[in-house]
Specification:
This protein is an alpha+beta fold. It is built from four helices and ten strands. It has a domain at 144-290: Protein Transport Mog1p, Chain A. The chain has helices at residues 18-24, 89-108, 193-204, 273-290; strands at 144-147, 150-152, 159-160, 168-173, 179-189, 209-212, 216-217, 225-238, 244-256, 260-269. The longest helix is centred in the middle third of the chain and has 20 residues, at 89-108. Residues 1-81, 112-138 are annotated as: Disordered.
């Protein structure tokens, strides 16, 4: 290489000859337009007028001309349909009225009985299984009736204590008006003779210093009796002046076969005991005779 241009070399060695050849090549035919290159219009917007094309327009309403503002109220609940078809309601009401009228007619006509307007005769009540036993004993005129056919005949110097309403209680008084002895006849049904006896003696000696004997069986003096028991006791009580008084007494109970128990409750001051015991004997006999 000499630094001189080669003679006869008319072109630029730095230029590619292929470019000239491309320019001289015939032009290729144009392809039809692609559907993907077509302009697609935007979808209609609820915020614009659906009848107009083009971009959204400014309106006076913040929600657009065709859209109202959102409501903060809950939608009203749907009314539930009645379970019974409405057509059956008047039919049911009519049936109720007919039933009430029928009941009223039955009541006015006397319930449909065939008594002919007469008052029905009540059926007799059943007779008790156990009745008061009969006895040949006839109490005297001065006998005091106790109940269930039982009576007591007071001896001289004894009178009925009217304040006592349970059975009949006889009492005798000292010259100063204080009670000296009591003879009390009372009754109860459907209990055992022993249970009734124990309840009586416990009530008599309540709040007293008492010494009770044992409950003992007595021979029943009559065939109508099925249980006969007795108990004796002594106690210390106080009179109305607060002075101590020695007392002695006994209780006897007789249960008949009709389940009626008659109890004899005797109680006296110790200093009057001999006279009181003598008076109590005939009074006790009058009660037993009437059982």
């Amino acid at each position: 290489m000499t630094g001189k241009r080669d003679k006869g070399s008319s072109g630029n060695p730095w230029v590619n000859k292929d470019q000239d050849e491309d320019a001289a090549a015939p032009a290729e035919p144009e392809l039809p337009p692609s559907p993907w290159n077509l302009e697609v219009p935007p979808p209609p917007s609820p915020w614009t007028n659906s009848g107009s094309d083009g971009p959204a327009q400014e309106t006076s309403s913040p929600w657009g001309d065709n859209v109202g503002p959102p409501s903060l109220r809950r939608p009203p609940p749907q009314k539930k349909k009645p379970r019974i078809p409405p057509i059956l309601l008047p039919i049911g009401a009519g049936l109720v009225v007919v039933a009430l009228v029928a009941v009223a007619l039955v009541l006015l006509s006397g319930g449909g009985d065939d008594t002919g307007g007469q008052t029905p005769t009540p059926s007799p009540s059943p007779t008790p299984t156990a009745s008061t036993p009969t006895t040949s004993y006839t109490p005297p005129a001065n006998a005091v009736q106790v109940g269930y056919g039982v009576s007591v005949v007071p001896v001289q110097g004894w009178s009925v204590l009217e304040a006592e309403k349970r059975g009949k209680e006889l009492v005798t008084y000292a010259p100063n008006g204080e009670a000296r002895a009591f003879f009390w006849v009372r009754q109860k049904e459907n209990v055992t003779a022993q249970a009734y006896l124990v309840a009586i003696v416990e009530g008599e000696t309540e709040n007293e210093i008492a010494k009770l004997g044992s409950v003992r069986n007595l021979p029943c003096p009559k065939d109508v009796l099925e249980e006969c028991v007795a108990i004796s006791y002594t106690s210390t009580t106080k009179d109305k002046n607060g002075l101590e008084v020695k007392v002695q007494g006994w209780v006897e109970a007789y249960r008949r076969k009709d389940k009626v128990v008659t109890a004899l409750d005797f109680r006296t001051r110790v200093d009057y005991a001999p006279k009181a015991e003598a008076d109590a004997a005939p009074m006790k006999k009058s009660v037993v005779d009437s059982l």
